């Protein structure tokens, strides 16, 4: 918290001026001169149609976002770097569009996308996880998901801010803070948490600084920022999307997914990045879950009809009630029923208290050891880097305390990970416990009651999905009494993305709760 207070005090005067400018401008977007098309809240489908009608070019779209970033990012701190080649990519997309039929182009062709700053790009952008320790490092190749995005014709707009090292450095680090990016702000209520670790990806999409974005999740890092920033976060089954070239926490739980303003946009992005990658063995097996024809076919407005949805009130709905949101979610359950879903209420997940306890479940023991092993392997593969091991990063932080705010934030997670020595007896026992908790808890519940999805408020359920590599999607569901957004999450068994997409899209179309941010101080 000390670092957060320092950031606030150092920018107290400018914050008032920035906020005044934003609010006096009337909105965070504009209509392009001489065109009827408005970029604000535009979906991929809207933008593609504007391309086809010559109402918009990729260059105009990128220029617009660059202007918005210049206007808003000093306040929101959602973006660390803008790609100096973004306009060149836009021009190339516009040129290609002139000579090809629109139906022949991929859905993301000419669409700007923002990448969390732990996703590697072999270009002029840095990949640092928000840390100065990796500034200037050179990756050997694009991350697997980035290679797929380029093949789909997407424009890499830049790198999003994040909780440094994907929130795996210190227990004292504020959500959404990194030394390189600063303190990310929630665009709805600036004093509220943006949550993390994919904070900048959610902030930037919510505030219309970019069309769509990519984030990563080990345990809650997609779902939580999506919930707090009124956007859609899609956490795929582990291995559906490649983790190759992404700064790791643990390959057992890490997954890459979209953060977007709508379910349909998230699905378009998932279609572009899902699939086999020879550099990530997990994709070899998980790719069998990917349906023939992709995920777009499951954007069904009537997708809730006949779906069996489980409700675990203890503790998830109790948390919502404690926040004064109990009635909001009871109303949502009525909506689900009205749309044809079968709601199976008052269920329990075996050992839920243990699963939600990072230490008691064994998640902490296993992840610390896996982090050291996987991070060292990532660092050793870099073409160039100021650091080559976790030990080097710890030493860097001590050598440059002002850069990494080591005196205010600390690095106790790093130190605990460094003290591990591979996968020994304790780690093996922890891994077995996690496997049993997933099998006898969530997986058993889903099979016993023949559920299509579990429905919960917010993202508090994330450890349940994390330890088993299960997928989930979160959709805007309302706002608390202070105006802070809250989401509703739908999670399922491995490979159940088609059902989750139908459910989430059906809910979204029946409610349409999302609205642009108000920048409330």
TrEMBL record:
Residue stretches making up the Amidase domain: 61-500
Gene from which this protein is expressed: LOC111308010
Protein name, per record: Amidase C869.01
Gene3D superfamilies noted in UniProt: Amidase signature (AS) domain
Organism superkingdom: Eukaryota
Keywords: Signal
InterPro entries given in the database record: Amidase_dom (IPR023631), AS_sf (IPR036928)
Residues in the signal sequence: 1-28
Pfam families, sorted: Amidase (PF01425)
Lineage of origin: Eukaryota, Viridiplantae, Streptophyta, Embryophyta, Tracheophyta
């Amino acid at each position: 918290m000390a670092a957060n207070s320092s950031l606030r005090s150092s920018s107290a005067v400018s914050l008032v001026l920035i906020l005044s400018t934003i609010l006096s401008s009337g909105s965070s977007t504009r209509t392009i001169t001489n065109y009827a098309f408005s970029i604000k809240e535009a979906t991929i489908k809207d933008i593609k149609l504007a391309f086809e009608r010559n109402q918009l070019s990729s260059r105009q779209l990128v220029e617009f976002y660059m202007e918005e970033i210049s206007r808003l990012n000093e306040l929101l701190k959602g973006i660390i770097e803008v790609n100096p080649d973004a306009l060149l990519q836009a021009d190339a997309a516009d040129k290609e569009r002139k000579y090809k039929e629109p139906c022949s182009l991929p859905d993301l062709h000419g669409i700007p996308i923002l990448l969390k700053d732990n996703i590697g790009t072999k270009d002029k952008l840095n990949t640092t996880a928000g840390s100065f320790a990796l500034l200037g490092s050179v990756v050997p190749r694009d991350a697997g998901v980035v290679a797929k995005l380029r093949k789909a014709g997407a424009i890499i707009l830049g790198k999003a801010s994040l909780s440094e090292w994907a929130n795996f450095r210190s227990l004292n680090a504020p959500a959404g803070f990194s030394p390189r990016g600063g303190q990310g702000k929630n665009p709805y209520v600036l004093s509220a948490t943006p949550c993390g670790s994919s904070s900048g990806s959610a902030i930037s999409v919510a505030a219309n600084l970019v069309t769509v974005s990519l984030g990563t999740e080990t345990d809650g890092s997609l779902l939580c920022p999506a919930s707090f920033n009124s956007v859609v976060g899609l956490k795929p089954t582990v291995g559906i999307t490649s983790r190759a070239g992404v700064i790791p926490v643990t390959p057992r739980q890490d997954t890459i997914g979209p953060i977007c303003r709508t379910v349909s946009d998230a699905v378009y992005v998932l279609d572009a990045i899902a699939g086999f990658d020879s550099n990530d063995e997990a994709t070899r097996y998980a790719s069998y879950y990917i349906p023939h024809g992709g995920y777009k076919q499951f954007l069904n407005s009537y997708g809730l009809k006949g779906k069996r949805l489980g409700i675990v009130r203890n503790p998830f709905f109790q948390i919502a009630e404690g926040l004064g949101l109990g009635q909001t979610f009871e109303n949502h359950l009525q909506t689900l029923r009205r749309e044809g879903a079968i709601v199976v209420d008052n269920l329990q997940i075996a050992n839920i208290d243990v699963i939600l306890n990072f230490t008691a479940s064994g998640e902490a023991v296993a992840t610390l050891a896996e982090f050291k092993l996987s991070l060292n392997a990532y660092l050793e593969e870099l073409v160039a880097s100021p650091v080559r091991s976790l030990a080097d990063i710890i030493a860097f932080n001590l050598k440059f305390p002002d850069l990494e705010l080591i005196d205010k934030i600390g690095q106790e997670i790093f130190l605990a990970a460094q003290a591990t020595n591979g996968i020994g007896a304790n780690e093996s026992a922890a891994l077995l416990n996690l496997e049993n908790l997933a099998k006898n808890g969530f997986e058993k519940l889903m099979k016993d009651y023949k559920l299509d999805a579990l429905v919960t408020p917010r993202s508090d359920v994330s450890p349940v999905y994390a330890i088993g590599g299960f997928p989930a999607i979160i959709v805007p569901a309302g706002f608390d009494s202070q105006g802070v957004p809250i989401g509703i999450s739908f999670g399922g068994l491995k490979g159940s993305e088609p059902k989750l997409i139908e459910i989430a899209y059906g809910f979204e179309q029946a409610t349409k709760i999302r609205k642009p941010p108000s920048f409330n101080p």
